[in-house]
Amino acid sequence: MPKTTHKYTNGEVTIVWKPDTCIHSTLCWKGLKEVFDPKKRPWIEPNGATTEQIIEQVRKCPSGALTYYMNDAEDAG
User: Which member of 55, 56, 66, 74 has the lowest number of beta carbons within 10 Å of its beta carbon?
Assistant: First the structure.
């Protein structure tokens, strides 16, 4: 059975969330609640912080459930 993957983008960076991998460490939302808020749906709001802040916080995810990739500006246009 394939694992579920969700993607959220602010146009510059895309946050990838794999809920099946998440260990619920809470580091994401405790560190950047403007983007990660488990009380909201969707719980990830990629426009809530700068791309740099998002990357910094996603890199702290201990399980790898949160990752990111930069969007190619040429493909976006």
Answer: 74
The helix/strand/coil state of 75 is helix
Judged on CB neighbours under 10 Å (0-12, 13-18, 19+), 14 is middle
Can you read off the two tokens belonging to residue 17? 């969330």
Q: What is the phi/psi pair of residue 7, to 5°?
A: -125, 140
pTM: 0.88
Nearby residues of 42 by Cβ (< 8 Å), 6 or more positions away = 6, 8
Question: Mean per-residue pLDDT for 54-75?
Answer: 91
What pLDDT does residue 77 have?
40
Of 2, 77, 13, 3, whose CA–CA distance to 45 is shortest? 13
